Amino acid sequence: MKYLDSLSPLSGKRIAIHVKPAAERALRAGHPWLFAEAIRQQSHEGQPGDLAVVFDSKRRFLAIGLYDPHSPIRIKVLQHHQPAVIDSDWFTNRLQAAADIRQPLLTQQTNGFRLVHGENDGLPGLIIDRYADVLAIKLYTAAWLPHLHHVITGLQAVQPFDRLVLRISRNIETITSQHGLYDGCILMGDELHTPVIFQENGLNFAADVVHGHKTGFFFDQRENRARVRTLSAGRRVLDVFAYSGGFSVYAAAGGAASVMSLDASAPALEAAQANFALNPNHTQHKILVGDAFECLEQLRADSQTFDMVIVDPPSFAKSATEIRQALAAYTRLTRLALHVLEPGGIFVMASCSSRVTADDFSNTVAQTAAGIGRPLAKVAQTSHALDHPIGFPEGEYLKCIFATAP
User: Fold this and answer.
1) Which residues, including other chains, have CB under 8 Å from residue 147's CB and lie 6 or more apart?
2) Out of 11, 49, 322, 389, which residue is the most buried by the measure of CB atoms under 10 Å away?
3) Other C-beta atoms within 10 Å of 363: how many?
4) Which is the CATH superfamily of the domain at 218-405?
5) What pLDDT digit, counting tens, does each position of 368-383 carry?
6) Contact 201, 222 (CB under 8 A)
7) What's the sign of the alpha-carbon dihedral 230, 236, 240, 245?
8) What per-residue confidence (pLDDT) applies to 65?
9) How many CB atoms lie under 10 A from the CB of residue 211?
10) Contact (CB, 8 A) for 375 and 369
């Protein structure tokens, strides 16, 4: 672990924190974040990753977490209510609990999934994805740096691996670079020069875990992809915002007559082509590079229609101020998608923004469809898969609607 040798050890002196009443109530309820403005009193300034102990108004233990002076979320809470020694054993136990939740996936011809889902698995700001024998750790806070040795020790006990890749969020790249760490560096194992092949529900996929978006693949839609597989037989399918072709490959595996993958990224669609090649099928696959909104308009102008249209856009609302424009985007996408959907066709629409509630999303899609004379008959509305548990309100983000339209 040559890259970790330069990391500074913990100071050893815990920070004592006293908070305002509203924050105390939130922590009692198990919320994993403590914001800077909620701190009423602090014993001393700390470095990223120092352990901070939060006390209630009667000076009783309330929580312990990782201190991050560079983030408005000043403390990422590791444990509530009961004091604990945060060491290798503690991390190993927490990682084992996360692995136990994912155990059913191992019986489903699946060796690619999210092993740790940050706050929702009690490890805020830390993502760990498994790609067969490769693990990718993504850090969203520099507070994890002094604890990486403990995390890796726990991983070796819970989920053995051949390689360990470090992915770093842009907001902490400056800090991590001071320790010689960079996005995509190999912490353990040999260098990676090709994508990693993994299985999901018996289908093969390749992921660039070193340079790919996030950690290389989106595992959260696995169950929705599986549902598409059961509905696609004989259909002409359009996969909008296809990225590396997850939904497209599943549609082909389900017996789709043809699949068109649409995305603004040519490299992503090259990866989709490669994923198709990993899974022998007889489905015709076309790719279309371009802006989703513009391409949907052009497909309609060209009188091209499909029996199934899947729309899985990126997050349109990263802050509360963007909710209105996100709903406007969902409105426009719904309208455009239904314009190219055959009568009786299947419409699949997803949202991955926690800022947009499931009700607001569902109502927006339904009202838009009804407004253009294509009222939806909802088949299902899904939420999170088991490897993306919901541990607190802000942790709920994924919504997906399956419906038919006349």
Assistant:
1) 49, 66, 86, 91
2) 49
3) 12
4) Vaccinia Virus protein VP39 (3.40.50.150)
5) 999 999 999 999 999 9
6) yes
7) positive
8) 98
9) 12
10) yes
Q: What token pair was written down for 235?
A: 């259909």
- C-alpha angle 177/318/296, rounded to 5°? 110
Q: Which two tokens stand for residue 13?
A: 């002196």
Count how many residues are written for the chain.
406
Task: For residue 88, give the amino acid letter.
Answer: S
> Beta 126-131 vs 112-117: how paired, if at all?
antiparallel
Dihedral of CA 164/105/124/384: which sign? positive
Domain spanning 2-80 has what CATH number? Answer: 2.30.130.10
Domain boundaries, the chain: 2-80, 88-192, 218-405
Q: What is the dihedral of CA 301, 302, 307, 311, to 10 degrees?
A: -60
Given a contact cutoff of 8 angstroms between Cβ atoms, the answer to whether 298 and 235 are in contact is no
Token pair, residue 179, equals 């320790």
Q: What angle do CA 153, 155, 156 make, to 5 degrees?
A: 65
Closest CA to 242 of 283, 273, 203, 278: 273
Name the band, by pLDDT with cuts 50, 70 and 90, for residue 8.
low
Q: Using 50, 70 and 90 to split pLDDT, how confident is the model at 12?
A: confident
Distance, CA of 266 to CA of 244 (rounded, Å): 10
Does the structural domain 88-192 have CATH classification 3.40.50.300? no
Q: Confirm if 81 and 63 have CB atoms less than 8 A apart.
A: yes
Q: Where are the alpha helices (DSSP H) in 6-159?
A: 21-28, 88-102, 148-158
- CA 24 to the chain's CA centroid: 29
User: Distance (Å, rounded) from C-alpha 96 to C-alpha 88?
Assistant: 12
